Amino acid sequence: MTSNPFVPPVVETIGDHKVYHCGTLTYTKMGLLAMFAWLLWGDFCFTLMEHVVPSILPLKLKSLGCANWQMGMVMTTVPSILNMTICPYVSFKSDRYRSRWGRRIPFIIWTMPFLCATLALIGWSEDISGFLHGNSAFLQQYAPTTITILLIAAFIAMFQFFNMFVSSVFCYLFNDVVPPQFLARFTGMFRIAGTLASALYNYFIFQFAESNMREIFIGAAVIYFFGFGMMCFMVKEGKYPPLEGEDTGKRTKRLEGLKNFFKESFTHKIYWLIFFFTTFGVVTGAVGAFNVFFYKNMGLTLSQIGKMTAITGIASLLAAYLASIYIDRWHPLRVTVYVAVFAVVGNFMNWKWVFISLPGEYFFWLTLGVGVVTAFAGAIGAAGSMPLFYKVFPKSRFGQFCSAQALIRSAFALCSGIAAGLYIDTVKYFAGGSDFAYRFIFVWQTIGSIVCAIVIVIAYREWYRLGGDAHFHPPATWNPKGFEEMPIVPTVGPQVRWLNISFKLFNAIMAVSVFGIPMLMCWMYYKHSMVAFEWHAWLLFPMSVIAWIYWKLVEKGIRRDMQRSLNNEPLRNGIPHHGVFIFVAGKFLLVLGLWFVQVVVTVNLHMELGAIIFTAANIATDFLLIGGVQTLCRIERGFSTTLNENLS
Known about the structure:
The chain is mainly alpha-helical. 73% of the residues lie in helices and 3% in strands. It is built from 22 helices and five strands. A three-stranded antiparallel beta sheet has the order 1-2-3. A two-stranded antiparallel sheet has the order 4-5. Strand 2 and strand 3 form a beta hairpin. It is globular and about 70 Å long.
């Protein structure tokens, strides 16, 4: 057996037991389970710790009178500056570091005491501010809240500095100690552990965010120190050989190291595209810090917000593991592309809340229902992110490429936090200073998701050009071949049976959208909601029929290409993969049930405009779904494989 950890491992059978290898590491089945358990326990503690800061600090800063742009700077810009500098350095060094403890764990252990100390100091910031204000003549000229804000900003900067060492290398550790044949499955379990930690925190603890901030921060620091520390001592790394194609002399460690970093990481189109995809994902999510204020504006309490987040998180637990299985079969890049295209539809659906206000209790249950029925489709997208990097980035320099990605991402995130805050402040100005402005976060997210979809689609086409499912190997300037060999994991191509099922689901969506309107009109007539009745009769019902006709034309084109493929003829439109396609169809079919409830509720509350908007949003969603399917057909055109074929 080779000692090179980047050569695909083998499985040996010794007696009645299988032995698994990952480089120089050897596992029995029980050893593999133990290693998984410790990594998942570490992730549980890590996720719990990381959830505390972004969930509580926006509430605290807002209570202290911070402007939205200031919150964006503290929560996004400062961490982004550190991510641009610390993350690339740590990642590059950890790829090349060698010690008896490994190349990743030392970076975690060395910074752990400082990270925990700064986390606790954030909790004590108001007490420290009071002490300084009362004992310093210089500081007494400033308001106590100003001192508190400055202390929080300083402690956050210190916390993020030390946390960069951990967050930079923790996920790299998986690629070094988990046998490749289990990486996607482990990623699914990793998502479960993180989701469980998030759910428990949101359900039981978040409701005390405003009243017990100090206790929550100190508790998180203690749990992280002991829990995550135990994982570091129980998980062992193997031995690593020197990197191929790199001089180990003194000059390499300085200027040559920087030169190699940029030369190796930024010389191929597909890497740039993946970098920019994740970058625009961060920009899109920059308004996420204001979600809690949107929910509060919709009438929810902190307890309801926490419980809603926890329940939807629990609903995705099983989905996360099942999703990892399908990601293995369909390829994570393909899954990411399809999810990105349909994410535009999901973001656009939320625009309706700009025009509609429901009582808090109704909004809580409707939003909770949407979160639960869409859990599986959402879990597929979330579970595909890390496997995507494992499949596209070269394993020998995995940390380096992840840090190069973080460098680009942080350069944009540096300004996106402030820009998002200024965006909200601008909308707030035109809204007369009302928190109604937080409802416009979905406009920002929709525009961002469109950019993300465009970039990842281009990356997908480039991946196809470089070999796709059967022949892709990461481009590598340091290798004489021009690429780094990696094992090709077989994937499943489009299947006639499952495509037919997805067509039936889409037809069901269109049928329910069409025939559901007359049923709802009967209820409107019974409740004397004649304005809503007339809008549905003269505009919305005809539009739903047009949407169904539009779908039948698209379906007809796909079916013709399916027949051409079976006859080995050139395709004209392209055939979408059945994978995410079928789950998205199922998701939106279930959401139609919530559309019924939304219209019935608004009619009962004599909110006729709300009933009209809910149905109009549903029809617009139908058109966008069909447009998404057409987009996927165009993406696959020229690269579609033979139906029912296994790709390897």
